[in-house]
Structures are given as C-alpha cells and as structure tokens.
Amino acid sequence: MNVNNLLDLYTDYLLVTPTYSTATGLSSVTDNKVSHDQVTRLLSGQITSSTLWQQVKPLLHEIGCDDGLLIIDDSIEPKPFTKTNALINWHYDHCIGKSVKGVNFVSSFYYSPQYSMSLPVGVDYVLKDQEQIDNSPYARLG
After folding, report:
1. Helix extents (H) in the chain
2. Are the CB atoms for 78 and 100 separated by under 8 Å?
3. What is the rounded distance in angstroms from the CA atom of residue 78 to the CA atom of residue 88?
4. For 6-65, what is each residue's pLDDT tens digit?
5. How far is residue 60's CA from residue 20's CA, in Å, rounded to a whole number?
6. Virtual CA dihedral for 109, 110, 111, 114, nearest 10 degrees?
7. Which residues is 73 bridged to in the sheet?
8. Helix pair angle (3-16, 49-63), 10° resolution
9. Cα gap 104→44, rounded to integer Å
C-alpha cells in the first residue's frame, strides 16, 4: 500500500471511528493488512497540519458556510508504560486534575451546521524537548 492510499485509509478511519482511534485499531479493522508499524511510520513523518489541510481543503470549500465553526481542542493520549521522550512526556490533564504520561496534541475541526458535518483541519503535537526545574515554593506543594 502506498503512502497516499494509507493516508486516505487512515483519514477515513479517523472520521468514522466512534471511540478511540489507534494504530492497533486500524490494523484490526483491516484484518492486519495494515500493520501497527505502517501506521506509526506514517504518523511519525507524513501527517502534518499541512498534509491534513491538503486532504480536506476541497471538501471544506464545498461545505463551508457563514455560520461554520472552527473548534480547537487539546487532548492527551495516555502512554503510561512508554519511556519518556520529547513527544511522550508528563502533561497536566485538567479533566482528571493530575499529570499523566502520554502524547499531548492540539487538534482543530471545522463544523458546518448547514450540513451537520465536521472535518479535521489541523493537528500539532506538543513537544517537551527542553528540561526545566521549577524551584518555586509552589512546586513543592503536593
């Protein structure tokens, strides 16, 4: 499977999956014709906000309307058993009120109320590639 077909398949999978989207999940729904490693390689270098935008731009022009909404949200995909690095690190999760180890990403969606349709239009990953130590008195509070 070439990169463009895999990107199309992955984009379709993200659009139709009602729960968590994972590389293992995509592999499972394709009866392992697409491996977890193929998806990981695709995500590690191929999908950027720019490539995603190029994929959805034609459809967005079709469904765009004056009362459309741009929805921006940050999320954390927990990775509790993975070693930390610039991408997988500790992030504060305001939903549960504590820090969790995982991938923090910011996604943006366009919603068209006229067509009751939403499209992903951007994704960026939060990288923590500089270590900092907080010596303030507040850092010592439990």
Report:
1. 3-16, 23-29, 36-45, 49-63
2. yes
3. 9
4. 888 888 888 888 777 888 888 898 999 999 888 888 877 666 788 888 888 999 999 999
5. 24
6. -160
7. 107
8. 60
9. 14
Measure Cα distances from 100 to 5, 35, 74, 95, 96 in Å. 34, 27, 14, 11, 9
Give the amino acid at 8. D
Quickly tell me which residue has 């895999």 as its tokens.
Answer: 6
- DSSP, res 71: E
Reading the block at residue 64, the tokens are: 């765009």
User: Does 141 score more than 60 pLDDT?
Assistant: no
Paired with 109 in beta bridges are: 71, 120
**In the block, residue with structure tokens 């935008």:** 53
Can you tell me which residue has the tokens 């994972």? 22
